[in-house]
Design goal:
The structure is a homodimer. The first copy, chain A, is of the alpha/beta class. Chain A has helices at 13-16, 24-34, 49-62, 80-87, 96-108, 115-118, 156-174, 192-198, 200-204, 232-248, 262-272, 287-293, 311-316, 322-328, 333-347, 394-414, and strands at residues 4-11, 37-45, 65-69, 92-94, 122-124, 128-130, 139-144, 147-152, 179-187, 210-217, 220-229, 254-256, 277-281, 302-308, 351-357, 372-379, 382-389. In chain A, strand 6 and strand 7 (139-144) form a beta hairpin. At the A-B interface, helix 1, helix 2, strand 2, helix 3 and helix 7 of A face helix 1, helix 2, strand 2, helix 3 and helix 7 of B.
């Protein structure tokens, strides 16, 4: 069975000057993989006719499916539609459904309609329009020399709606795809090269169609097994078997058997144990709480947090003793333990995470350099505290501290 | 003066299956723009020999500078170095400085050294090695047919170190670049097409070498002016003049004269007014606080937060009356006002933001559908409350609410 290749093309100068980070491509790649389509290239080009046409030509030579996002807005810098119309040799005609959609959206939001908004309903006569239930710009499905080209808005939820309602089902119908499966093991506590050393015989014995990839990510090491096999029936079982073998070599450092965010992993553990959680955060400034509450349904186990950035809040809200702050400082085992105990009382939860550290770039000392962090995790009468030292910039130090605290509580819950 | 073009090539299957979001490219593009180099393409390819070589050929045809990241780790899936060695016709030899660096890193971290770690010090004899002060994998600088190819690790802080210490200074010496300047105006409160309508004469009158781009982003509309001019002396003044003209047409909706994160914009306002701030967050779960504390030095104005996800916390920690929650519900003007008043007392700050809403996917009702949010912002005796309705998915609803709350407080501070 032929392997089906896709290219993702994002259009917009903002992607080239670093003003916007492309999060669409990751979501699109995941959905395409689920239906057995392999994304072999991702390309970002500017709002420039020649660059867009060159990308259409190059990707059209290499992939069966070319998915484009961006440049469909109502303003002068949005040129994707006319360029596609030119490339595929069509002319712009008014689309009734798209027109009704534009009118409906402006009416329902009580906005005055402008000429440029009506132009959103003009579509090349050589494409199949794709309805946009969340915005005014319709998507466009073109076919040329047996290749499929789909243009969608760059607005994430508009693109996602079109992909789910139309593009993915259509592609699934059109292509006979092989099974394309990933299974990722999350580990923590052992470096990439040491893990590789421990499982090198396993890795060497893998069949050619199963690949192992190592992805270090904020204190977590992801080990991803990928198989591409024409036999959908055996592929899953075979991957499961390989995954089991790998896992058995790493039981002491396993965090999860799936590539889930720490917020979900921790949430599932708390749900299973029917426990509630809260946080007392200094240096992470609410990041741990926001990771937990990013998960739908987190209200079943998360009650709240005290972000005690100022020592005054540590003392007055969490009940940390002034003497403790004076004697040991805000970044100390004694302080995070009192923060945790205070949070257990104030938030009335079964368990908590408390963190205090120096994220940088300033605030470090010889004794406590930037990156020094104390984490306390646990419940009433049993709190584990641990010191970390991260060597990164402020934002990465905050991420590392957040993951470390969540993983510490996860380990505490497993005991 | 010739325009200098760069291509950014990221290598790694994780970028193609959507397991990793590429944040390196945005940072690299910003730094290159600062020295007058235009990034015309960003390409992501997998850990695959043919795909990497094809990218080297294609980008080498189109750009003067090709910057590659990723695939330099110590594990079997990291193939960038051998592929580059083959492409540029060299052989791998041991580099003394790199070897000393590997030994030093493992020694200082008290880790046992493995053969595969020593291999990190092997470098093609046809490249100039780039020292990696933050990791074991050295960078590599190749030149072929007058084009420059630089390979760096995908680990963000390692790549950044090499760019700042070596790559950017070298490129600046090598190329005569034009002035490449951006100036972005942040606005809020008027839709993209209405803003475009209001400034269409201004836009039409812009000289050809100044481009205007519209970037809607979470309730903020960014208007970016970009100029590329050989005359470094006049370019800045000319852009400043155009920016002033544009701004004068939009004074009523201006948020900031620079493309800064809301956390920085709000922080600067608080610093200028010498005021302290805190938050009382329900549906954002600490996201507002984490945005504020992402800014270095935020401890000068941020004291803390109460994340009151459970009504019990709203009542017991923030002092919201049970009667208010019973009668009006957690998502109501009355509740967010009492949350704000409570936070002002508990956190003892000059001003606060309080938010409560339904982020979805569940929890909506006919009366209060998903996306319904109440925001209160203000200080003692003067609190402004406002209702929003966002129509996105959970994560985007949280982002929209966060930006809306910070912008509401910013406006309150301007009064």
């Amino acid at each position: 069975m032929e392997k089906i290749y896709a290219s993702l093309v994002t259009i917009g100068d903002e992607l080239l000057i670093g003003q916007t980070i492309d999060t669409n491509s990751a979501w699109m790649a995941q959905r395409l993989n689920e239906i057995g389509i392999w994304v072999q290239r991702r390309v970002a080009v500017g709002d420039d006719r020649d660059a867009i046409i060159r990308a259409l030509e190059e990707e059209g030579r290499q992939s069966h499916i070319i998915l484009l996002t961006g440049g469909l807005g109502p303003t002068a810098d949005d040129i994707t539609k006319p360029v596609l119309c030119e490339y595929f040799g069509g002319r712009l005609v008014q689309n009734q459904e798209a027109l009704q959609n534009v009118l409906h959206i402006f009416e329902s939001r009580g906005l005055a309609l402008l000429e440029r908004n009506l132009e959103q309903a003009m579509i090349p006569d050589v494409c199949t329009p794709i309805f946009n239930k969340r915005g005014t710009a319709p998507g466009m499905w073109f076919e040329k020399d047996g290749k499929i080209y789909v243009s969608m808005p760059g607005v994430p939820n508009e693109m996602k709606g079109m992909m789910q309602d139309y593009v993915l089902p259509q592609l699934q119908q059109r292509f006979q795809t092989p099974a394309l499966l990933h299974h990722t093991l999350l580990t923590a506590g052992l470096g990439e090269s040491f893990v590789a050393e421990r499982i090198k015989d396993f890795e060497a014995a893998l069949p050619a169609h199963i690949r192992l990839a190592y992805l270090p990510s904020y204190g977590i090491l992801k080990l991803r097994l990928t198989t591409i096999s024409p036999d959908k029936l055996t592929a899953g079982a075979e991957l499961k078997d390989a995954f089991g073998k790998m896992r058995s070599l790493l039981t002491d450092i396993v965090v999860a058997d799936e590539d889930l965010p720490m917020g979900v992993i921790l949430g599932n553990t708390l749900l299973a144990k029917k426990l509630t959680v809260g946080t007392a955060e200094s240096c992470t400034g609410g990041e741990i709480a926001s990771r937990i509450t990013a998960v739908a349904g987190s209200s079943r186990y998360f009650k709240g947090s005290v972000v005690s950035y100022a020592n005054e809040i540590k003392r007055d809200v969490l009940g940390v003793q002034q003497a403790t702050l004076d004697r040991f400082g805000a970044v100390s085992e004694e302080t995070v333990r009192e923060m945790a105990e205070g949070a257990l009382k104030v938030l009335n939860t079964n368990c908590v995470m408390a963190v205090s550290g120096i994220m940088g770039p300033d605030g470090g000392s010889d004794e406590k350099p930037v990156g020094t962090v104390w984490v306390a995790a646990g419940g009433k009468g049993r709190i584990a505290a641990r010191r970390y030292h991260f060597r990164y910039d402020r934002s990465r130090n905050i991420d590392m501290t957040t993951v470390a605290a969540m993983n510490d509580l996860r380990k505490w819950l497993e005991l």
